[in-house]
Design a protein that fits this description.
This protein is about 30% helix and about 25% strand. The protein is of the alpha/beta class and about 280 residues long. The chain has a single domain (about 5-280), classed as Rossmann fold (3-Layer(aba) Sandwich). A hairpin with a 2-residue loop joins strand 3 and strand 4. It is globular, with a radius of gyration of 18 Å.
Length: about 280
């Protein structure tokens, strides 16, 4: 799709959602692996399966239910994606980021993203929550992740280029850290490394990812954050450390174990979000 097609697709999807739920949401949530249960705390007015929304990519990964939850959370109108799509599922960069365009078309200015990740920082423990201060993008999707115009030039809007403004809002991060301290919930801070997946990393890769500055590694979030930044949305992102990437004592990792750990830590994320919610919507 070129930029015109993407804008049109987002508008068509947003129109279908608004026909089902006319409330203007103040916040969008993308709930990653094992964190879909957080959506259960939303007082849902409408639940829409992704298959009922035109152009919306469907989730196929384990632990992703593929539903849009529209309702109120702590008296704030929100939309939550109960599951996301990934590049490793065969989706293009434009498809993976289309839900963010749809959220922007609905008038949403603040985006919360969550994911499950492997911990690279030796100070981390399984079950820790990390607020993302930055990322290292190793998804290597260019130029195939870009769209081309009819004259063959790559669209810089369909696949935004890097800009100087940080993807992850500093004010939001500070608010989350202060909220965590107030309610005595441990919160790590770090850099998330994004790989395409779906395979987990080798011992050598874990060592290298730590050496270049990564604190956690996963297979999502960065495309959505880049698109949100391009659309001038403010982003707060949390990563649940579901397993430790210890090269010298590498243990087998299963999708089921990742989901179980993420679900156990989900309550901590919810507590922090409930505390910081006023700042997220005051923009």
């Amino acid at each position: 799709m070129d930029e015109v097609d993407l804008v049109q697709a987002a508008a068509e999807a947003a129109d279908v959602i608004q026909q089902r739920w006319s409330v203007r949401p103040r916040l969008a949530l993308i709930l990653g692996t094992g964190l879909g249960e957080l959506a259960e705390s939303i007082a849902a007015d409408v639940v829409i399966d992704y298959s009922q929304i035109p152009h919306f990519p469907r989730s196929t990964a384990i632990g992703h239910r593929g539903r849009l939850i529209c309702g109120s959370w702590h008296q704030v109108p929100v939309i939550a994606m109960q599951g996301r799509s990934h590049l490793y599922e065969g989706y293009s960069w434009q498809q993976v980021t289309l839900p963010v365009r749809i959220m922007a078309a609905l008038g949403i200015k603040s985006l919360l993203i969550t994911n499950a990740s492997g911990g690279l920082n030796p100070k981390f423990q399984a079950g820790d929550v990390m607020v993302m201060e930055d990322h290292i993008d190793l998804m290597f999707r260019s130029p195939s992740g870009c769209s081309e115009s009819q004259d063959g030039e790559v669209s810089k809007i369909a696949r935004p280029s890097r800009v100087s403004r940080p993807c992850y809002d500093l004010e939001f991060r500070n608010a989350a850290q202060q909220a965590a301290r107030r309610i005595n919930v441990p919160l790590q801070t770090g850099v998330y490394v994004a790989l395409t997946g779906p395979t987990y990393e080798t011992r050598a890769e874990y060592r290298w990812l730590r050496k270049i500055g990564g604190d956690a590694v996963g297979m999502s979030t960065v495309p959505e954050a880049i698109m949100a930044q391009h659309l001038k949305m403010r982003v707060l992102a949390f990563s649940i450390i579901t397993n430790l990437a210890t090269p010298d004592a590498l243990a087998a990792v299963t999708g089921e174990a990742v989901i179980e750990t993420a679900q156990a830590a989900g309550n901590q994320v919810e507590q922090i979000l409930a505390e910081v919610l006023p700042q997220l919507i005051d923009c």
